[in-house]
Amino acid sequence: MELRNYTKEQTQTIQAAFMSKVYTWMSGGLAITGLIAMWVASNESLVYTIVTNKLLFYGLVIGEIFLVGYLISMINRLSAQTAGIIFTGYAVLNGITLSLVFLAYTSASIATTFFVTAGTFAIMSIYGYYTKKDLTSWGNLLFMGLIGVILASVVNLFMQSEMLYWIVTYVGVFVFIGLIAYDTQKIKAMSTASEIGSEAESKGAIVGALMLYLDFINLFLLLLRFFGDRR
């Protein structure tokens, strides 16, 4: 149904219910990722295998990219159950690769960074949800910033420039902070695009959760450069 078919009160109720589903999926994904990361990090033989076997490590990374691409591109053809399984599978794979973070940084600094990330996420998501300002104009700017961050990161793999490293970090933090608000508003607008309780609504909530999950994880990894204490 279209937005114009609802009263203001109905629209607000629908949006709140939809966003609740989005945040539930997102929180579940983060919980799975965190638990898997801690479990893998505590298993020395498994960590050793991942670190020493480059084929396995890059296979995991490629698997993550494939799952995200597949979920987004095929969402209209997938059932809500299958979409949920793919999202969960991605969270598991991401937990395996992020387990290396627990080896590189102290647990205290990881916890601190997580809470800073969670607080920043909450503030920007609330802003994106309640602001009356149309954030559509942010889209192109944030997308260009994201592409710039990715390209600069790839280039710096070869240059190993500390200056470029910190430029990418600062720009990346601002990009993902902006994306949290932008994506939240975009997801909120999706809430009335399909019938309540339908397959389309369920799949929309999963896609929305994936968007915010990615924003959260990337912001966390960037902030870890500031707050993380290496072992």
- Compute the number of strand runs: 0
Largest sheet: none
Q: Determine the oligomeric state from the structure.
A: single chain
Q: Helical percent range?
A: over 70%
**Structural class of the helices, strands and pairings?**
mainly alpha
Shape: globular
Query: How many distinct helices?
Result: 8
Strand-and-helix sequence, N→C?
HHHHHHHH
How is this structure best described in words?
By secondary structure, the chain is mainly α. It contains 8 helices and no strands. Helix 4 (80-104) packs parallel to helix 8. The radius of gyration is 19 Å and the shape is globular. The relative contact order is 0.17.
Short description:
With about 230 residues, the protein is mainly α.
Features of this protein?
231 residues, mainly alpha, 8 helices, 84% helix, 0% strand
Question: Which secondary structure elements does this structure contain, and how are they paired or packed?
Answer:
Elements: H1 8-41, H2 44-52, H3 54-74, H4 80-104, H5 107-130, H6 138-159, H7 162-190, H8 199-227
Helix pairs in contact: 1-4, 1-8, 3-4, 4-8, 5-7, 5-8, 6-7, 7-8
